[in-house]
Amino acid sequence: MRQETGVIVAVNVSRETGTRKVTVPTAVLRVGHGIEGDAHAGAWHRQVSLLSLSSIDRMRGKGLELAPGDFAENLTVAGLDVWALPVGTRLSVGDEVELEVTQIGKECHLGCDIRRQVGDCVMPREGIFAKVVAGGVVRPGDPVRVRGEVLA
């Protein structure tokens, strides 16, 4: 049975792509854009990235010192295996934000800081990407709920 809820443990942003992100106390998500001030924001299908804390913990198990944002994810989520959610899944975050999963994993660009420094990157395998359907503010502690899947 698939998990249906989780919680945001970190909100992360960066000014440049391919770099570790910095944890921030809150972020504003805009419809059709993503997180204000983040390098990955824009009018495309990968506006916001999510990674499960369990994915980071598996890499920590290899003896690596890692923190949320080190794999360039915008939202680090505990209690929900985001990599298991199919494309089209709708997620509510907090009281306002709604996301739609648009992509599972990605092609890794070998020159990124994360891969060079860590030696491996879980984002290509377990990170997911979403577009912002309803905007608002997100912060650590906000619940993440699976709302359902969009039918094609």
Structure description:
By secondary structure, the chain is mainly beta. It is built from three helices and eleven strands; from the N terminus they run E-E-E-E-E-H-E-E-E-H-H-E-E-E. The protein has a seven-stranded mixed beta barrel with strand order 1-6-5-9-8-7-11. Strands 4-3-10 form a three-stranded antiparallel beta sheet, with no helix packed on it. The radius of gyration is 14 Å and the shape is globular. The two termini are 23 Å apart. 37% of the residues are buried.
Please outline what is shown here:
This protein has helices at 53-60, 113-118, 123-126; strands spanning 5-13, 22-24, 27-30, 34-35, 48-52, 75-78, 89-93, 97-104, 128-134, 136-138, 143-149.
Number of helices: 3
Query: Which class in CATH terms?
Result: Mainly Beta
Instruction: Assign the CATH superfamily.
Output: PK beta-barrel domain-like
Which architecture does the CATH hierarchy give at level 2? Beta Barrel
Structural class: mainly beta
**How much helicity do the residues have?**
10-25%
Q: Which fold does the CATH topology refer to?
A: M1 Pyruvate Kinase, Domain 3
Question: What does the overall shape look like?
Answer: globular
How many strands in all?
11
Q: Gap between N and C termini, in Å?
A: 23 Å
Count of separate structural domains: 1
Report the sheet-strand fraction.
35-45%
* C-alpha-based Rg, rounded: 14 Å
Q: State the low-pLDDT regions, or none.
A: none
Task: Strand order, main sheet: write it out.
Answer: 1-6-5-9-8-7-11
